[in-house]
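Lecture notes, unit on protein representations.

Consider one protein chain, 200 amino acids long.
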Amino acid sequence: MSKTGFQKLSPKKPKKRPEFREYRRAVQATTFGIAAIIITWLIASVAHSLFARPAVRPGATFSGRADDYDALLRCQADVETLFDDVNRKLFSLQALGSHYDIMLAEQWEMYSKHWKQRRREVGARCRFEELRNHGLGAAYDRLASVYDELEEVQRAYAVLLYNYIDHRASQVDDIRHALESSRKTFESQRASRGPTRQPG
């Protein structure tokens, strides 16, 4: 028997139509361009948030003198406000419960972005990194240490919130629904019974 009788028939590959070649190239170039723009924007935004120093008006910056009590008290008030705000925000979000888990996370992320920017502005204005342990006294050095710790507190609160969303939010939602259900049942039973006479 000849070899031609046993020849395997290979499936024919569909030919790419030449009229679509330019269209495919344009789509590929557009996709690549959009992906490159998005990646560049992400890298630039991360780099800016990590390394950019906030602009501070020269007149608003702490002079560095140990007797500049007005500026020191402004720095004290700013650090206290940062601390109070991050505490209030965490507990206000947790108080909302689990109605909108994604919304809670989004609110926290948006808040955190602004809070971190404010913190950097306070640090630049009060010159904590530059002047710590430079003889301005224990109170200034203590305030600078607290300023540093605030960033760790903010990160720890983020972990708490996300842990709450992941592990406790559904339980809180179930409790809320159970309470609403029992209250509505009692109210409808009272309404169906009509007015009741008060004893006495």
